[in-house]
Amino acid sequence: MTTTEAKQLLLDTHAEIKHIVTATAVMHWDENAEPYPPEQGAAARGAAQGYLYEKAFGLSISPQIKEALDLLTADPSGLDEYERDMVKIWKKSYDKNFKVPPAEIAALESVVSQAMQAWMKAKQSNDFDTMLPWYDKIFEFQHKLADYIGYDKHPYDALLDKFEEGMTVELCDAFFAQLREELVPLLAAVQASGRQPDDSFLRQACDTATQAALNHEVAEWMGLDFNRLQMGTTEHPFMLVIGRDDIRMTTHYYEDDLMSALFSTLHEGGHALYELNLPQALSPYGLDEAASTAFHESQSRTFENVFGRSRQLMPHLLEKLKKHFPQQFADVTSEQLYAAVNIAQPSLIRVEADELTYCLHIMLRYEMEKDIMERKLTAADLPRVWNEKMQAYFGITPPDDKSGCLQDTHWSSGLFGYFPSYALGNAFSAQLVAKMRESVDVDDCLARGDFAPLTAWLAQHVHVHGCRLTPSELIVAATGEPLNAKYYVDYLKQKFIAVYGL
User: Average pLDDT in the 269-278 region?
Assistant: First the structure.
């Protein structure tokens, strides 16, 4: 095999895998966005998805791919910049993935497809027993996957690294310890203040059709291009890439809580902007992907929280709310709205949690996943341990499993090691915006309701790189220093000390 033949093999194989991934993404959208497909077809759809995943996985670790990677790694002199990155990234992926039998991947995807259908039904009917056998299967696969991939210190390290390259239990423990040390006393001070902003005007009935119109307008305001984007509804909001010019995002409308959908749109819209801004030139080489799940979360959290819940943006947000719901918001001021959307208090549902308590939800899930990987915790233990941790961390106990251990889709999706990305993403977000402020008047942009300069900075310093840099490399490239949780802690302190007059 010559250098030219090896390069072409990688490019051609990537293109073939991309076609398969597109097909499975369409199937994922069909299963998880309303209207949902027939429940009785879950097994057949799962088998088809399993076949396609096995096919794509097998292509990525074929003997021919190994030969090409070995050749190009040994002598990269004939490669241009993008080709070198393609080989480097594919080689790292190959070295992990070739240890996992393709049949195991197919089996997992088949199980996950059916488990997702079971989870939606189990959550709606508050029936944990329905999910127990599926969780048993998925958890056992995580143990096998960690053993296949290998690890130095902790089996969970193998899964964390899938989503955040270089992340380990040791690093996560230190990161969460810093957040716990700083944020738990702040939350205690907030609770002891005896103050709580009025948010009753956000709990009035707002019909979902009008909410949909509002959210579509907000998405356009963010700069999302509906020639390349589709919005839908689902049980658990998500963003999905079908292709570079086909991004899908969802929300979930509640008649008595219109802010849930609105901030979901800002969140998923941040994800979508990342994908829409990835350079097309990277696509043939498989470099047009996010640096990591945490960096993806940094983009969604920036728009949802740092921008979306800022004092400067409130007059513009209130204007849109009054346009669509004039009666409900007739007497509301922007300061009242700002205080209402920044309430900090213990809550049951992660996706509805405020910024201050959010990371406690992530720590709970992180600790449970770590215990599962140490075989200290089984699927049958989930409701009891979840409720115990909720009581210990928040002082509240879920009244049922649908607001407890069944609330998230991740475990039924086989996404172990994903949850820490949410907390890391918050920290990345605060650090990126702190750096952005050195060259962009962020407050002025928000006061004018102009997202364009803010998105442009993110595109120039984050999106442009695709996945060519590791997460640790990218945060240094964008901000000049490694991840530093102090920016996140300082951001939260500044906001909540002011909101609660501490």
Answer: 97
Strand, coil or helix: what is 105?
A: helix
- Active site includes 268? yes
The answer for residues whose C-beta is within 8 angstroms of residue 494's C-beta and 6 or more apart is: none
Helices 420-436 and 452-461 cross at an angle (nearest 10°) of: 110
Please give the Cα distance from 190 to 215 (Å, whole number): 31
SS3 233: strand
Give the CA count within 13 Å in the CB-facing half-sphere of 59.
Answer: 18
Burial 450-462 (b: 16+ CB within 10 A, else e): ebeebbebbbebb
pTM strictly above 0.85: yes
Of residues 268, 275, 367, 369, which has the active-site annotation?
268
Of 3, 14, 168, 172, residue with least CA distance to 89: 14
Report residue 267's pLDDT band, with 50, 70 and 90 as the boundaries. very high
Query: How does pLDDT run across 371-410, given as a tens digit for each residue?
Result: 999 999 999 999 999 999 999 888 899 999 999 999 999 9
Distance between CA atoms of residues 379 and 141, nearest Å = 13
* Tokens found for residue 18: 């991309």
Q: Answer for the pair 160, 167: CB distance below 8 angstroms, yes or no.
A: yes
CA–CA separation, 69 vs 75, rounded Å? 10
Give the model confidence (pLDDT) of 274-324 as tens digits. 999 999 999 999 999 999 999 999 999 999 999 999 999 999 999 999 999
Q: In angstroms, rounded to a whole number, what is the distance separating the alpha carbons of residues 71 and 60?
A: 16
Give the other-Cβ count within 10 Å of 402's Cβ. 18
- Asked whether the beta carbons of 239 and 268 are under 8 A apart, the reply is yes
Rg, C-alpha atoms of the chain: 23
Q: Can you tell me the distance from the alpha carbon of 411 to that of 273, in angstroms, rounded to the nearest whole number?
A: 26
In sequence order, what are the beta bridge partners of 485? none
The number of angstroms, rounded, from the C-alpha of 145 to the middle of its chain's C-alpha atoms is 21
Most distant pair of Cα atoms in the chain: their distance: 73
Q: What are the distances in angstroms from CA 413 to CA 31, 95, 316, 317, 400? A: 12, 24, 37, 34, 21
In the structure encoding, which two tokens stand for residue 164, read together?
A: 């955040």
